[in-house]
Design brief:
Vanadium-containing Chloroperoxidase, domain 2, Vanadium-containing Chloroperoxidase, domain 1, 2 domains, 3-stranded antiparallel sheet, two-stranded antiparallel ribbon, about 50% helix, about 5% strand, disordered N terminus, Vanadium chloroperoxidase N-terminal domain-containing protein, VCPO_N, PAP2/HPO_sf, V-haloperoxidase
C-alpha cells in the first residue's frame, strides 16, 4: 500500500514547519558546556551470583513495562509540537539515548538480564519502577543544567517534574522504594560520568570553520544570518564522540560520492533541482507534505514507529527489561548514525544541492545548468551533504525493529509528525516508512539521491549490527 495522507487540519503545514526549522537553525548557533559529574567506580560493582541470576530472571518476565513505556511516552511528548520546537535533531538524539540507556541500566542493575552500558553495584532488592523513573528523571535534569540547554532539552519541564512525583507516589513506601530511588540516582550518575569525555565535542556551531570549499563539489556555507559573518558549521565535532554501540567510529564510512563531472551526478543534480525547489512545478502536494513531514526530530518520529510495532503485539509478551533494551537500542542506533555520518560528511565535504545549483556553471559538467536564485523547500542544514543521516537513522531503526520482532515487515503504521499537527501518514510496512523517510530529503531540497540511497544501505547494515551486538542478553 502506498503511503497516503489521512487527515489534515486547517491549512497546509508548509508555512508552519518552515518557521519551526528556522527556529531550530537559530539555536544551532549557541555553544554548550557539558556538566561533568562523578562516577561510581567499576571496582565497586558487586559480583553476581549465577544461581541468583537464573532465579531472578524468571521473576522479571512478568514485571510490567508500564513505567518504561510511560517515560518513553513522556520523551515523545516532550519533543512534539509545540514543546519540541528548537531542539535540533542531532543534539536531542544525545538526550534521548542517555535517558533510555538510564532506564535500561537501572533495571539491569537489579536483575542483570542484559549487558549494561555503565556499571553500578547491583541491588536485587530495589524497586524496578522507582529505579527507572528516578534514573530517567535525573538524566533529563542533568542535561538540562547545561548552559543553553534548549538545544538538548525543551525548557518547559513541568510535565517531567509532575511525572516523577506521580511515578513515585504510585509505589508503596518502604525499603524497596527507597533503594530503587537510590539506585536510579547512582545509575544516572554513572552513565553521565561515562560520557564525561564528550565535553569538548558538544558545542553546537563553529563559525567559518572548517573553511568554505574552493573546488567544484566542495561544501559551501549557506548564509545563516544569526551566525558570525552569516556562516556557521553545525555540530562539527560530533564525529569525535565515542560511539554508543559501534565498535569503532569509522565502521560505516561509505565510498566516495559521484564525481561532479559525471552523468550520474548530473542525473541526481537535476532531480534535486526539479523536485527540491521551494517553487517546484513538478513536486506534487503529497510530495511536498512528505518533504515537510519527515524533517522533524528523528528520535521522535522513529520512536513513534517503534512503539506502534511493539504495541501491535500482545502486551503480555513484553516486560520492563525487554522494553527498556528495545528503546535503548533504537535511540543509541540513531545517535551512532549522527556520529558516523558526521565523520563521513567532514571527510567528503560535499556541497548541498543549494550550493551545487547556484554554482553549476563551474562544476565542469555540461549536463547541469546553474540557477543562482534557486531555493530549497526548507532551509538547508549547515553541514555537508553526503551521506544522509535521515536515511541512515531511519533504515537502522527499521532494520532493528524488523529483526527484533522476527523478521516481520507487515504492520499498520499510522505515523504523525512532531512538527505538523493533525497530519497522519499511513503505511503497511516498516520498509514503506523507511523509504518515504529517505525520499523526503529530495523533496525538501536537502539531498541528492545517492546520499539517501547510501544512507539506507549503511543504516540497514547497522540495524543488523545492533540487533546482534548491542546490550546482549546474558547467558
Amino acid at each position: 500500500m502506498n503511503p497516503k495522507r489521512v487527515a489534515t487540519l486547517h491549512a497546509r503545514p508548509l508555512k508552519k514547519v518552515s518557521q519551526f526549522i528556522i527556529q531550530k537553525g537559530v539555536l544551532l548557533l549557541i555553544s554548550a558546556i557539558f556538566l561533568v559529574i562523578s562516577c561510581a567506580k567499576d571496582d565497586d560493582v558487586e559480583p553476581i551470583d549465577n544461581a541468583l541470576l537464573i532465579a531472578s530472571k524468571k521473576s522479571t518476565k512478568s514485571h510490567s513495562a508500564d513505567m518504561v513505556l510511560t517515560w518513553n511516552k513522556a520523551m515523545q511528548d516532550l519533543y512534539t509540537f509545540p514543546r519540541g520546537v528548537g531542539t535540533p535533531p542531532i543534539s536531542s538524539a544525545y538526550t534521548w539515548t542517555l535517558v533510555h540507556l538510564a532506564m535500561h541500566d537501572a533495571l539491569n542493575s537489579i536483575t542483570p538480564r542484559y549487558e549494561t552500558y555503565a556499571r553500578v553495584a547491583v541491588d536485587k532488592d530495589a524497586d524496578p519502577d522507582a529505579a527507572v523513573a528516578q534514573a530517567a528523571y535525573d538524566v533529563i535534569l542533568t542535561i538540562n543544567k547545561i548552559p543553553f540547554a534548549p538545544a538538548f532539552v525543551p525548557q518547559n519541564l513541568t510535565s517531567i517534574h509532575s511525572l516523577l512525583e506521580t511515578s513515585l507516589n504510585a509505589i508503596p513506601d518502604g525499603d524497596a522504594k527507597t533503594k530503587g530511588i537510590a539506585l536510579g540516582h547512582a545509575v544516572a550518575q554513572a552513565l553521565m560520568a561515562k560520557r564525561a569525555s564528550d565535553l569538548p565535542h558538544l558545542f553546537l556551531i563553529s563559525p567559518n570553520t572548517p573553511p568554505d570549499g574552493t573546488q567544484p563539489g566542495e561544501f559551501r556555507y549557506i548564509f545563516l544570518p544569526p551566525a558570525p559573518g552569516g556562516k556557521g558549521f553545525a555540530f562539527p565535532d560530533f564525529g569525535k564522540l565515542q560511539p554508543f554501540f559501534m565498535s569503532k567510529d569509522d565502521m560505516y564510512i561509505p565510498g566516495p560520492p559521484y564525481a561532479v563531472n559525471s552523468p550520474e551526478y548530473a542525473s541526481d543534480f537535476n532531480e534535486a533541482k526539479t523536485y527540491g525547489a521551494i517553487n517546484s512545478q513538478v513536486r506534487t502536494a503529497d510530495q511536498t507534505e512528505i518533504g515537510v513531514f519527515w524533517s522533524e526530530n528523528s528520535n521522535r518520529s522513529w520512536n513513534f514507529v517503534a512503539r506502534q510495532v511493539m504495541e501491535s503485539y500482545n502486551p503480555q509478551s513484553q516486560n520492563a527489561w525487554k522494553a527498556a533494551r528495545y528503546f535503548a537500542v533504537v535511540h543509541g542506533a540513531i545517535m551512532d548514525a549522527y556520529i558516523s555520518t558526521t565523520i563521513s560528511k567532514i571527510q567528503y565535504y560535499t556541497w548541498r544541492p543549494e550550493s551545487a545549483i547556484h554554482l553549476a556553471d563551474s562544476d565542469g559538467n555540461d549536463l547541469t545548468v546553474a540557477d543562482p536564485i534557486w531555493k530549497p523547500l526548507l532551509p538547508t542544514p549547515p553541514i555537508p551533504e553526503y551521506p544522509s543521516v535521515l536515511s541512515f537513522s531511519g533504515a537502522a531503526v527499521g532494520q532493528f525493529v524488523f529483526r527484533h520482532f522476527g523478521d516481520r515487515d507487515n504492520y499498520v503504521i499510522n505515523q504523525t509528525s512532531g512538527f505538523v499537527p493533525g497530519v497522519v501518514r499511513s503505511f503497511s510496512s516498516i520498509s514503506d516508512a523507511v523509504k518515504e523517510n529517505s525520499l523526503s530529503s529530495i523533496y525538501s531540497g536537502f539531498h541528492f539521491r545517492q546520499g539517501i540511497e547510501i544512507g539506507e544501505v549503511l543504516g540497514k547494515s547497522y540495524g543488523d549490527y545492533v540487533f546482534e551486538n548491542a546490550l546482549k542478553e546474558k547467558n
